[in-house]
Amino acid sequence: MRKRTKKLLSVLLTTAMAVGMLTGCGSNKSNNNKQNSGNSTEVTTEATAEASGDNGETSKVDTSEHVDLTMYLIGDRTQDFDEVYGKINEILEEKLNCTLNVEFLSWGEHDTKYSLLFSSQEDFDLIFTASSWCHYEQTVALGGFAPLSEDFIKTYAPDIWNVVPEMAWEQAKINGEIYMVPNYSNEFGQDVMAVRGDLMKKYGFEDIASWDELMNFYKACAADGMYASNGSPYYQYFQSQGLTTTSGTPQGGELILYNTQNPDDLGFTYILDWDGFREFCVEMKELADAGAWSSDVLNSSDERQTGLLTGRTAGMIWNLGSCNTYAKQANDENADWNVTIVDPVANQPKKVNSYINNGVAINASSKNKERAMMVLNEFYTNPEVYDLAMLGVEGKHWEAVGDDQYKVIDESGYGVSNNCNWGWNNCEIQRKEYIENRTALDDRFDELQEKFNNNIKAEHVYDGFNFDSTNVSTQFAAVEAALGNYYDPLKNGLVDDVDKAIKDMKAALESAGIQDILKELNAQAEAYVAQKQAN
After folding, report:
1. pTM (two decimals)
2. Mean pLDDT over all residues of the chain?
3. I want to staple 208 with a disulfide (CB 3.0 to 4.6 A). Which of 37, 253, 329, 342 is the partner?
4. Running DSSP on this structure, what letter comes out for residue 259?
């Protein structure tokens, strides 16, 4: 494989996000020999690995004892996953005298099983995590993740320390401690929809660029006996109102929103005090009653993309990259569907996700924290390992085009960025796809990417804020438990009486302690804003 070296970054806190959002993450890749991939650690003849921090000093890390590590990822194991990770293990064995076993928590089960890994004291070392949607703040509050000091990172993952922007480390801090290694890439926190173009044409839609058009499309699907999607488009609703989730708050932030489009608005919207939530629930009940999605959707274990790929739904809702991936797959298997991508909130300036929207943490109970961090350093900064985890086996799943592009050979067995490699996204060494025979979908994807990059919203101080639930952990757990009986049925229109369901849910959350959470949230937000203004 042709190797690439990474460019070391010197990132200023005040400029990193601005430059990244306007220009995207650049890359500088060149050939390198097999023995040297950046500064990635290697096992020496003395059975040690050399780790060099940015202070120029070198320390010896003892790797003489072989260890077997375990990492948990989110999703499902693909057909060729074990083959790919077998090759990764060959590299880890040679360089770090260790192997890595990978287990998966599926999309349908991670909400319930993630915390059980820690409460049951499961023996593992590394785990994917993310702010809000994948249990970061909650697990820190439970003491599940090991704190990562600056010295620890510099010693066992010096290349990561040199790559990750200072802003990302700041975002990862809870009570002044870092508990995850954040990814380094610019992602848009905006849901779009991969949708069958043949059905859009059948129902008379040239585009779906507004909330009203999206609702009309859902109604047209229902009238035709076709499910529109696998459940309601709640994110696109509140995004159309200028709102977004508040990191670290209950239900992945969906219960408490803030106006990300208005930097001067420092208030929070508790959805049960918001008329807009009631209006949404009423509209969703109308759609559910009409048959816009399955009445059994709450019991479904389907992945987000399953409905689209099987022809059961007209579309799927996800981020731009994921929608493009599965739209391509759907078109490869059913060319007459002409799946495309639409943005139902096209006029809304776009929010760039925080760096902690994807990351990797170390289990506080891991017996091999140092080696685990060294392994993560390889995944994050060694181009050979990075390409394997993202793209699969070169020559089987993909082939290189120059030093910084790839061309897909066969995506059916592994898939591009389809195996939860997002926790170590590093745009400094990530290849971009070379497309030889472009399709209308490729043009549409590039068009939307350009529009997103040219329509980035102003930064809101809460965009980097993460609620710490430690002081209200009992109330937080009670609220999360109470939500299960009301929230999903409400937002999917599967209740007999919307007003009664909202009233019952509100009473249950009041009893669980939601007001204590809101009080703590406002106090933390006030302190956070004051600190930012002081700096």
Report:
1. 0.67
2. 88
3. 342
4. E
